[in-house]
Amino acid sequence: MSTPSSSTGSLWFRYASPASFYPLAGRLIPWFGAVAAILAAAGLYVGFIVAPTDWQQGEAYRIIFIHVPAAWMAMFAYLVMAFWCALSLAFNTRLSAMMAQALAPTGAMFAFVSLWTGAFWGRPTWGAYWVWDARLTSTLILLFLYLGFIALRASIDDPRRADRAAALLALVGAINVPIIYFSVRWWNTLHQGSSISMTAAPKMAHTMLTAMLLMTLAAWAYTIAVALHRVRSIIVEREALSGWVGEVERPGNSASTMAGAATR
Questions:
Q1: Cα–Cα distance measured from residue 238 to residue 106, given in angstroms and rounded to the nearest whole number
Q2: Segments of the chain with pLDDT less than 70
Q3: Cβ distance 215 to 44 under 8 Å?
Q4: Which of 97, 121, 199, 260 makes a 20 to 30 Å CA pair with 58?
Q5: What per-residue confidence (pLDDT) applies to 263?
Q6: Which domain range does residue 206 map to?
Q7: What is the DSSP letter of 242?
């Protein structure tokens, strides 16, 4: 008789295969995409219409409802990417490397949005679009790490060698994430400290906090949906010579038929 732990373990091993994960990702994409759209609409409504005007920064503060979730997501996506890279190096799993590859463009986009919105926030707040502040500089380095990861992968023709080289870069670059997070504590910076802490009450109105959390959850759901969509394209590209790819790409195949073909 199989135990629950053994059943869970076999499920994980089953979906570690690109052939099995492909149809599962296809089923999940519409759900996460819909959740992202609903949460983003609610977050933008609460943040830009319902939330009160800040007494100190005026209306300019509302950009934080895009800036802060983008900054959080840029850091979080990099750590998840590094996690997949570590798995690919430790267990030589193809799907882990593909997941890391799929996350990199979205993480780079969020890092860029974070820097871009931060510049527009900094102009009325600090009087300048850019200063060589510790947090801003380390976030810029994060963007370069994402771009370096993407460029390194593209410069190596052999996918397995590209996986290993990019994984090493991602793991070395992961040290930059805690530097970004703790930079306002370690150095004297212009960037304000965290308004939300796990150990203290939030420093903003509840309406503002609600908008921030809604936009953050929307960013997570969006990242999952886009990464799953992109990894399906990567799977088809890299597994093009496998017999199951022709089966799942044939018009009229249902998800259940694809899952059956993948596990045979």
A1: 20
A2: 1-16, 55-56, 58, 184, 186-204, 240-264
A3: yes
A4: 199
A5: 35
A6: 28-238
A7: S
Domain count, the chain: 1
Q: Is residue 68 domain-resident? A: yes
> Helix (H, G, I), strand (E, B), or coil: what is residue 54?
strand
Output the pLDDT for position 61. 79
In a domain, 253, yes or no: no
Instruction: Kindly state the tokens that stand for 185.
Output: 């504590």
* Token pair of 258 as six digits: 């694809």
Burial of 81 (0-12, 13-18, 19+ CB in 10 A): buried
C-alpha dihedral sign at 202, 204, 206, 208:
negative
In a domain, 208, yes or no: yes
The tokens for 232 are 């399906």
Residues 226 and 20: beta-carbon distance below 8 Å? no
**CA dihedral in degrees (34, 38, 41, 45; nearest 10)?**
180
Answer whether 77's CB lies under 8 Å from 110's CB. Answer: yes
- What is the rounded CA–CA span in Å between residue 49 and residue 149? 39
